[in-house]
Structures are given as structure tokens and as C-alpha cells.
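In response to the reviewer comment on reproducibility (Comment 2.3), we provide here a single inverse folding case reported in full, input and output, so that an independent group could reproduce the run without further information from us. The C-alpha cells appear first.
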């Protein structure tokens, strides 16, 4: 995107771009989850709640279905993947 276009963006537009970037990052995380061989929400739930039991199942369910774009869950899921790699 040209610099002059970026300068003309409004605050609302920056928030929209941030949501796009968060959705993209979330989709990459869930895709990598599938590529590791885990194919269901139940598998995701079991692994994530093993490391982070404080996450509510409703938030995790909404994350799985892209109902929410949750950066906290994205960070924790990334952390879980790193822990799985090291085991």
C-alpha cells in the first residue's frame, strides 16, 4: 500500500486493518494445528486446556469458529505449539 494512502487512513480504518491481520494470524494458527495432525475442536480444547485451564471453553469455541478474534488465545495457542515442539 502506498505511503500516501496509509497517511489518509482514518482511525476506524486502522482498526479494520488490525482485525484483518488478527484474523489472518488466527487462521494461520488453526491451519498449523491441522497440519500437525489434530483435526477437531475436541483435540484443540484438550491440548490448550491442559496448559491453560483458565481459558473458558466458550471463548475457545468462539475462537475455533472465528466468532471472536482473540489475541490472548492466539498467543497462548502459539505458546502451546512451542511447548509441543520441545516435547
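Designed residues, in position order:
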Amino acid at each position: 500500500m502506498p505511503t500516501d494512502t496509509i497517511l489518509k487512513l482514518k482511525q476506524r480504518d486502522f482498526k479494520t486493518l488490525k482485525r484483518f491481520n488478527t484474523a489472518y494470524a488466527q487462521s494461520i494458527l488453526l491451519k498449523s494445528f491441522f497440519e500437525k495432525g489434530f483435526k477437531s475442536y475436541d483435540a484443540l480444547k484438550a491440548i490448550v486446556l491442559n496448559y491453560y485451564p483458565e481459558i473458558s471453553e466458550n471463548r475457545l469455541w468462539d475462537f475455533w469458529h472465528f466468532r471472536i478474534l482473540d489475541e490472548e488465545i492466539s498467543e497462548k495457542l502459539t505458546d502451546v505449539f512451542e511447548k509441543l515442539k520441545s516435547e
